[in-house]
Amino acid sequence: MKILTAAQTRQLDQATIREQHLLSVELMERAAAAFIQWFSSYFTPAEAGETLIICGPGNNGGDGLAIARLLLQRGYAVRVSLLPAEKQSSDWQHNRKHLPAAVPVANLSPQHLPAIAEGALVIDALFGTGLSRPLDGLAAAVVQHLNDAGAHVVAVDIPSGLFADAPQPDDSPVVRAQHTVGFGLPKLAFLLPQNAEFVGEWHVENIGLSTGFIAEAATPWHYTDAAAVAGQLPPRPKFSHKGTFGHTLLLAGSRGKMGAAVLSAGACLRGGVGLLTAHIPGCGYDIFQISQPEAMCLTDKQADFISELPDLKPYQAVGIGPGLGQEAASLAVLRKLLQAAAQPLEKTGQPLPLVIDADALNLLGSHRALLKQLPENAVLTPHPKEFERLTEPARDDYHRLELLRDFAQQHKCLMVLKGAYTCLATPTGELHFNSTGNAGMATGGSGDVLTGLLLALRAHAQLPPVEAVRLGVYAHGRAGDMAAALTGQAGLVAGDIVRHIGPALAEL
Ligand SMILES: NC(=O)C1=CN([C@@H]2O[C@H](COP(=O)(O)OP(=O)(O)OC[C@H]3O[C@@H](n4cnc5c(N)ncnc54)[C@H](OP(=O)(O)O)[C@@H]3O)[C@@H](O)[C@H]2O)[C@@H](O)CC1
Ligand SMILES: Nc1ncnc2c1ncn2[C@@H]1O[C@H](COP(=O)(O)OP(=O)(O)O)[C@@H](O)[C@H]1O
Ligand SMILES: [K+]
Fold it and tell me: ipTM for the complex?
């Protein structure tokens, strides 16, 4: 699914109206009906009580007026507050004219802010994607009043005061919604942690927008939903053998962190790899062999950390980092690995695929000269703190995305910035936000599981790098969702994700 800018969204409206020979007010009616569909599945008239709808002067306010009419028709009690303005949009005027007289309407003014009981339901239709500047004056006062009231807010299209695709100044007021019901496509603003307190839970309703326009629209931003990855995992041919799906090497573990190696290896095996060899410190031998009997194991001469790089000839992909530690000897291993991986493989003509995580990223961050040696299409999987160590502190989430994109383009690598909407940045500057996963995965070892799964998929001869990583990130989150359905989010541990990788991949 594509994510468009606010300007593109306006063009999309216009294209839809043109292509489908609609009046713009008919598209507004569709939007209002889609909103009602969601709203009425969520709140019965009794649960909703008297619902206040606050309407601005543009088409977002026009949506609000149409919503008021439709809710009344369905037996909801509604009242409307209008933000005065010099002019209103023509579709606003149409819906104002058609608002039944039974709906109480009040004009907002500094002296007349509506009484809102704590927990009362309010629909925010002040401003949508037409927001052209931060809110001030009466609009700001209304938003402040609404936020202070502790109401239960449902935002139409986007919380008022929030830009769809850019940051707003720190102190500018934004509606804090519990739910946001958007139209057509998700907005970039919905996916960033800094906006979570405003957006709440978001939903996107289909209003039949022009698929042709969307297909043609140029955007770096994509949202990986089930449709984006469906059918991408090649089937296993009947006469395949363990050599068909690659032999991977995992460099992981140190004293006290062998679990990271075990979890990562488990995920790699469940990810469908043909063969896995783990190179681990001596202290981990029994732990590893007992917990992952399907994997082969090489032990380092050092008991507590890794200091040697095995011969890389047998392997189609190498993962490094989970539980590695940051010993100087392990840094030397990473250095040698980067040098060796740069040589094109005989079979593919491409550099050896690498997945670099955790302490291997921290080592890169503290020895940045090594970044120049990253082989093309290396996969790096930092969480925001690890990413900061590779680059610089970000001013905000938008700036972090810029840094991520620049990094992937500069180093021609695949950057997986982990989080609630894990973002994959590609060497060509695309950003793919993942849709799966849950807060139960915010638990030690979840990232190690992702590394193992990505390693398996990077060894898969038929999967191009970007597809492999996008698919892996999606399946990892899906496995987490399947696990949480059984354990609950609090009870989820990383091993549960490993156990659900198989079903998650099967679903694809
Ligand atoms: N996307 C879709 O598919 C569909 C979209 N639809 C709906 O349309 C919405 C977009 O409508 P929209 O373009 O009329 O903009 P909207 O947000 O109502 O505000 C514009 C008005 O506010 C004003 N204004 C702006 N900033 C301001 C500020 N800080 N303080 C004060 N005023 C400010 C601005 O004035 P100006 O900038 O010109 O000075 C103008 O008058 C969209 O979010 C969705 O709900 C559906 O109906 C159909 C399907
Ligand atoms: N709130 C969340 N929603 C969805 N996924 C999450 C959430 N929190 C963490 N995750 C996922 O769990 C993993 C955590 O990785 P990481 O921070 O490296 O953990 P660890 O180092 O403990 O393995 C990432 O893949 C991340 O996307
Ligand atoms: K709104």
Answer: 0.93
